[in-house]
Design goal:
Elements: E1 3-12, H1 18-28, E2 32-37, E3 43-49, H2 51-63, E4 69-76, E5 87-90
Parallel strand pairs: 2-5
Antiparallel strand pairs: 1-3, 1-4, 2-3
Amino acid sequence: MNKIARLIITGKVQGVGFRAFVRNRAMKNNVTGWVKNHDDGSVEALFYGSQENIDKLIDITRRGTPWSQVSDVLVTYPDDNNEYSLFEIIS
């Protein structure tokens, strides 16, 4: 059964290709959903997939890229009955 995780990622995560990195890793791990920047400098992501694949992607997100510096990742599991068929970068 698929699950949904919502992440708020803080640190140096904008202007460093972080959203593209998350989308690329999500697609490699069979996770759909979306990722977007917030005005406060954080990045929000929603992951839809198996718990195992979501957990892998959360770990990857915590590590970030060589150009990013992830300070914190807040993960919640909302009650959301939507299904997501793609992984999108939202502007």
